């Protein structure tokens, strides 16, 4: 019986990364998980289906890895924008702008994040655990931390405010993807209005972030 030669060091990681690159690109193109097949992914990557199963147990595991990658990209995009802000309110504003920019400039990756349910269905109404490794939860916790840096509130209040902010951002992003001609206020004014309602006016200012 022939023995398969051991892959050179690092080759397995490179192949996994290549498969993820290809699968992410294809999923962003077709915008439909049901249309993504293992055979199509491996064909474009130039390997056999069996090569993929060395790294992913099945299609569901592959899709979960893609979603983690896309949420991580969203998190990095938003964090980079917030890092350049001068104060907590400006940071929160920049994070909101960056979220909408990611949805607009990376529509395929953004759509992948929300195509199907991600992770296990939660049966409570509590914030994600701080020790989570789920990329979507980390995006939300970053938002909660940013809100908490602006206002003093209980954990429950920060959770509720942050869920409304994310819901609003996702709603605007999804609406513009589905209906590009939909009339909406200027993005900066819309964000300022959202902040005024949820965060309150800036001390000594006229409102907004």
Tags for this model:
Tetracycline Repressor, domain 2, mainly alpha, 209 residues, single chain, elongated, Arc Repressor Mutant, subunit A, disordered N terminus, 2 domains
Question: What would your notes on this structure say?
Answer:
The protein has 209 residues and is mainly alpha-helical. It folds into 2 domains: 9-56, Arc Repressor Mutant, subunit A (Orthogonal Bundle); 67-198, Tetracycline Repressor, domain 2. The chain has 9 helices and no strands. The chain has helices spanning 11-30, 38-45, 49-53, 59-83, 88-105, 107-113, 135-148, 155-178, 187-198. α1 crosses α6, α4 (59-83) packs parallel to α7 (135-148) and α5 packs parallel to α8. It starts with 10 loop residues before the first helix and ends in an 11-residue tail after the last helix.
């Amino acid at each position: 019986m022939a023995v398969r030669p051991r892959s050179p060091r690092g080759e397995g990681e490179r192949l996994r990364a290549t498969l993820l690159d290809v699968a992410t690109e294809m999923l962003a193109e077709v915008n439909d998980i049901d249309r993504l097949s293992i055979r199509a992914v491996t064909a474009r990557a130039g390997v056999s289906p069996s090569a993929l199963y060395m790294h992913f147990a099945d299609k569901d595991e592959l899709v979960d890895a893609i979603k983690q990658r896309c949420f991580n990209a969203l998190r990095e995009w938003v964090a980079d924008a917030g890092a350049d802000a001068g104060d907590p309110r400006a940071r929160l504003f920049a994070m909101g702008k960056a979220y909408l920019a990611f949805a607009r400039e990376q529509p395929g990756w953004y759509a992948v994040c929300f195509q199907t349910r991600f992770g296990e269905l939660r049966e409570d109404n509590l914030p994600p655990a701080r020790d989570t490794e789920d990329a979507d939860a980390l995006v939300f916790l970053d938002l909660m931390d940013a809100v908490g840096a602006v206002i003093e509130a209980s954990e429950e209040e920060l959770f509720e405010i942050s869920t409304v902010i994310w819901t609003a951002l996702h709603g605007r992003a999804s609406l513009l993807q589905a209906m590009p001609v939909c009339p909406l206020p200027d993005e900066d004014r819309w964000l300022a209005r959202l902040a005024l309602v949820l965060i309150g006016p800036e001390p000594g200012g006229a409102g907004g972030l």
